[in-house]
């Protein structure tokens, strides 16, 4: 496995003539790798000849007062895990390599970013799209792999790729969970032992909500009951519990085929997000 820090070096390695007809699968990450990332690599490895992973804690997607400075980092461990998982090239640029000057061109993601995490993390998805645009231009991947745990990010990137005709396809990879249901996340290490024992309630509550929706319960009642369960059984502060059409992230209509039931909960040092996807059309009773 090669570790490269410069854009020029990476471009040389991935030069179209060098790679000839080999496809490139790309796994963008902010490091502190866990099994969720490794599931992305596994799929990329199965589907491509070359697998590239980027590890870059992107400052433009963190707002003032957010955890950019304290975001967990461990480059050595990440490199070992990436090598073991079969990554061919790890791209680990520093901040100056990615943002050598203070450019003021912004990218605005639109309506999909006005809800859920976008509503409370102003500018977050602008920063995500900025770095993704740069990474897609640098790596020029055939396929790019994103986890469903960050379902809003995934939906916005799918729109970005479609709207701006990127060459890459976006591959969705299911959320990887701990045995007790907690979605794997780099931020889980920041939970206190008490919070860690409470955290599986998020998924428990979402699953309950999903079941209720499938049984035909009204959306607002479901949102309320999911929030109630999280509030009663954890010490975290709920940012949102919301049900929206997926991947449009607009309010549900009679035509919606899939919905996302999502939540974000702020614990003392970690913000946790999770979601479940609910198929709506399959659940409708047959009209005959
Ligand atoms: O999901 C992440 O880790 C980040 O948002 C991403 C996609 C690597 C962009 O910095």
From TrEMBL:
It catalyses: (R)-pantoate + beta-alanine + ATP = (R)-pantothenate + AMP + diphosphate + H(+). ATP binds at residues 30-37, 147-150, 176, 184-187. The gene is panC. It comes from the Bacteria. This is Pantothenate synthetase. Its main location: cytoplasm. Belongs to the pantothenate synthetase family. The keyword Glycosyltransferase does not apply. Pathway: Cofactor biosynthesis; (R)-pantothenate biosynthesis; (R)-pantothenate from (R)-pantoate and beta-alanine: step 1/1. GO terms for molecular function: ATP binding; pantoate-beta-alanine ligase activity. Keywords: ATP-binding, Cytoplasm, Ligase, Nucleotide-binding, Pantothenate biosynthesis. Beta-alanine binds at residue 61. One of its GO terms (cellular component) is cytosol. It is an enzyme of class 6 (ligase). Homodimer. (R)-pantoate binds at residues 61, 153. Its EC number is 6.3.2.1. One of its GO terms (biological process) is pantothenate biosynthetic process.
């Amino acid at each position: 496995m090669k570790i490269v820090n410069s854009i020029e070096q990476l471009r040389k390695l991935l030069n179209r003539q060098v790679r000839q007809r080999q496809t490139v699968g790309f796994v963008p990450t902010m490091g502190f790798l866990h099994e969720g990332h490794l599931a992305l690599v596994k799929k990329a490895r199965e589907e491509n000849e070359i697998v590239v992973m980027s590890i870059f804690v992107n400052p433009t997607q963190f707002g003032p007062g957010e955890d950019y400075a304290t975001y967990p980092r461990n480059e050595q461990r990440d490199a070992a895990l990436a090598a073991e998982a079969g990554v061919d090239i790890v791209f680990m640029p520093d901040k100056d390599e990615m943002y050598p000057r203070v450019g003021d061109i912004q990218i605005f993601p639109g309506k999909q970013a006005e809800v859920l995490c976008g509503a409370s993390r102003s500018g977050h998805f602008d920063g995500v799209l900025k770095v993704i645009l740069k990474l897609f231009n640098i790596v020029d991947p055939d396929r790019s792999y994103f986890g469903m745990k960050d379902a809003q990010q995934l939906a916005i990137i799918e729109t970005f790729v479609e709207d701006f005709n990127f060459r890459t396809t976006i591959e969705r990879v299911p959320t990887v969970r701990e045995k007790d249901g907690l979605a794997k996340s780099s931020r889980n290490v920041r939970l206190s032992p008490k919070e860690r024992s409470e955290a599986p309630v998020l998924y428990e509550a979402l699953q309950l909500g999903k079941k209720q929706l499938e049984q035909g319960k009204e959306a607002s009642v479901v949102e309320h009951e999911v929030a109630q369960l999280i509030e009663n059984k954890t010490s975290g502060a709920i940012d949102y519990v919301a049900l929206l059409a997926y991947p449009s992230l607009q309010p549900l209509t009679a035509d919606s085929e899939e919905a996302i039931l999502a939540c974000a909960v702020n614990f003392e040092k970690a913000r946790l997000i999770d979601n479940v996807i609910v198929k709506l059309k399959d659940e409708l009773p047959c009209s005959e």
